[in-house]
# Entry
Amino acid sequence: MTIEEVIKSSVPMSPQKRVVLNIGYTQNKLAEGIQSVLKPFDISAEQFNVLRILRGQKGKPANMSLIQERMLAKTSNTTRLVDKLLAKELVTRKICPSNRRKMEIGITSKGLELLSELDPVIVTHEHAYGQKMSVEELEQLSALLDKFRNL
Amino acid sequence: MTIEEVIKSSVPMSPQKRVVLNIGYTQNKLAEGIQSVLKPFDISAEQFNVLRILRGQKGKPANMSLIQERMLAKTSNTTRLVDKLLAKELVTRKICPSNRRKMEIGITSKGLELLSELDPVIVTHEHAYGQKMSVEELEQLSALLDKFRNL
DNA sequence: TTTTTATATTTGTAGCTACAAATGTCTTTG
DNA sequence: CAAAGACATTTGTAGCTACAAATATAAAAA
# Structure
């Protein structure tokens, strides 16, 4: 389905507006998919994201602002996400001894195990999209998105 | 900034994954923008969306399922959005006389006035993006997004 | 050293989605 | 007609973001 068919609008629209709608719609579809893939594991997409960031630290503990910075969604409320992960024993949190304003967040082995279970499932989901496109087209799509954002 | 620079990941990733991330990031940026544009008018992006759908009905009242269907976000909780709009006197809601299970939602003149105030502001925001692209590139971007979703 | 300012995080409030269960109304069927 | 089923919407619960205000600690300035 093209975006035109999806919204079956009566009035014609500018290419800009069509792109804006199309990005929104496509992102919705992607998010729904991820969500349903994660659901059986009792973890939200955002919590999953935090776990991946922590794994990326390779042992080094992360503080809250580092996590926030990497989250793409400006003001995801990191405190409350970490609270949830803590309750599931997927992360640890302790006050940084050298600077007691900061927190040191680490991933537990239980957290790492969950991620290694999830990895293949997520890859499968991500690679379900764009199957009908060549690598060149995929790269072009990313390049056009980069250019689109460029104000 | 390219998406690579945004996430500064240490490991290389597949073109598919890069696109997935890029769509998410771009949509975030767009949503933030819309939100800040609507903020002074005390209306959320979702409420704005419902209002536009109602205007599109050109006088015909809409029932809840019609609104839901047009909302792109599968399960936006239409009841609660309409509640908010009702409180601001931007819409009307009454039980459909021919089928009392249904609701008839209409936009008030106050709602229409708000929309006509918002229209130019939104267009300006939408057209801020993609300024550095040709119409052909914008159309190509939409086409690639359509193709990407095509499972 | 005391005050001020900056930094790091948390918390409160309001709005949102996702999903399932509950409610109320119509329609079909025995 | 009455029960069973389908349909349209609402409501409850849990998770999420956005923004601002509050807290706590560290660093800088007077």
Q: What stands out?
A: Chain A touches chain B through 55 residues (CB under 8 Å).
